[in-house]
Predict the structure.
Amino acid sequence: MDLFGHLKAYDYGDVHFSHDKATGLKAIIAIHDSRLGPALGGCRFLPYDTDEDALVDALRLARGMTYKAALAGLAHGGGKSVLIRPKQHFDRVALFRAFGRFVDNLGGHYITAEDSGTGLEDMEILHGVTKHVTGVDIARGGSGDPSPFTALGVRRGIEACVKAKLGRDSLEGVHVAVQGVGHVGYHLCNELHIAGAKLSVADVDPLKAERATREFGATVVPLDKIFETPCDVIAPCALGSALNDTTIPRIVAKIVAGAANNQLAQPRHGDDLHARGILYAPDYAINAGGLVNVAQEVLGYDAQKARKKTLEIYDTILEIADRSSKTGTPTYLIADMMVEEKLAAVSRSKMRAASPSKPDA
Ligand code: NAD
C-alpha cells in the first residue's frame, strides 16, 4: 500500500492506527484538518475487503467533514474513524471500549459520533471511556435525531435558491419534487408544506410516499419520473450519485437542492448542471444542519442555538449562488473555494500570531 501517497492525495493531516490484541480492534482515525478546531466526525463499523479500502474510506470521509464544518462556520476540523468489523465472533462492548480508549488517547483532537454501522448504544459505551463523543442519550446532554435539523437547513437552502434563481421571497406555491422521503425527506416535506410549497414525492417504499400524501398532500410520482417532474426544485434526499448522465438531461426544474450526500456522481456533473442553467446547492453546504446540531453537543447542548446556527445555511447558499452568477463558476467549485479561503485565512492569522512584529528599538 502506498500509505503516504494516499495521504498526499487527500491532502493530510494526521492519521492514527490502533490494533488492540485483546479485543481484536483494528481502527483508523483520520484527522484531515484541525485549523478551525478539533476534528469532528462519525465512526464507521463496517467490514472492509482490505485495510487499504478502510484507510481510503476514512481519508475521503474526513476530508469531506473538513469542508462541511468549515462552510457551516463551525469551530471544528474534519475527522472520521473506521473500525474494521471483525470477520470472526467478537465482543462488541469490549471492542468499543478499546476504541473509546483510542479516541481518548488523542486528548480531544478528534471527537467521534455515529455513522454507518454504529448507533446510540455504541456511543453510550464510548461515553463510559471518553468524553470526546457525541450522539449520547438526550437525557445525558445528547443532541438527539439530527434529521429535523438537516431538513431545516435544506428548507433554508431551498429558500435561498428560490430567492437567487426565481427572485421570490417565499415558498408559497413553489413546487418541490422530493426524491426519498425517509428521515430527512419526511421532515423536509413537513417544513415545505408549512411554508406553502406544493409537493411531489417518490420513494422505493410506497408506505413512506403514501404518508407524505396523507400528511402533506404530496403527489406520488413513479421512481423513474421524479427528476423530470415539471417543478421548480428537485430535492434529492435518497442515495448518493443521484445527479448523473441519466438524470441531469431530464431535469426540468431550475433548482436542485436536497439533503443527500455526494449527489454529483462525478465533479463534472456539477459543470453539466451549471451549463444547463440549473442552480445546484452543493450538498455539503445545504445538508450541514445535522452536523451543526451535533457540534452544539460539544459545547453543551442547546436546541435553540443549534436552530439559529442552522438557519445561517440560507446566507451560505445565497452567497454561493451570488458568486457563481457573478463569476460564471459552477456552484460546487465556489463552495470549495469558500472553504479554502477560510482555511487559508486561519493559517495566515496563526502565522501572524506565532511571529508578532518586534516593537521598534
Ligand atoms: P433514510 O434512509 O432515512 O431515507 C432515504 C429514503 O430514500 C428512504 O425512505 C428510501 O426508501 C428512499 N430511497 C432509496 N432509494 C431511492 C430511490 N432510488 N428513489 C426514491 N427513494 C429512494 O436516510 P436519511 O437519513 O433520510 O438520509 C437521506 C440522505 O441524506 C442520505 O444521502 C444521507 O447521507 C443524507 N444526509 C442525512 C443526514 C441526516 O441528518 N440524516 C444529514 C446529512 C446528509
Q: What stands out?
A: The first strand starts at residue 14 and ends at 20. The domain at 3-67+75-133 is CATH 3.40.50.10860 (Rossmann fold). The first helix runs from residue 3 to 9. The chain has 13 helices and twelve strands.
